Structure of Chorismate mutase domain-containing protein:
Amino acid sequence: MHDRVIDATGGTPDAPGPSCPACGSGAPAEPAAPLLRVSLPSVEDLGTLAEARAAIDGLDAALAVLLEHRAAVAALVQRLKPVGGFAGRDPGREREIVDAMAEHAPSLGRDRLAAIMNAVIEAGLDAAGR
């Protein structure tokens, strides 16, 4: 488990935020005001069942917010696709997503992350279709 803080800008307190893809320069993007700040507790600091469950509850709340926001952005991607609407998933892009995530979560591994992201993508597409 990581002992760090993640905020909505994609950075950590000691790391820069995401680069600006629109600039093409790799220069850091102007960070938006953080919408969510989540402390990632160290497993070693959790000594009781109640503490561990409270940590899970906090992480789950953050995941819910992130998943909802991801679904909204993914719905926009579907509308912006040149083929229009929900004309299809992009397996290459999905592999890129999973590969990038696997670098951040090596203990989960690529196969587990692929299954998780498949469910996330399908749920997001389903939610956007309503």
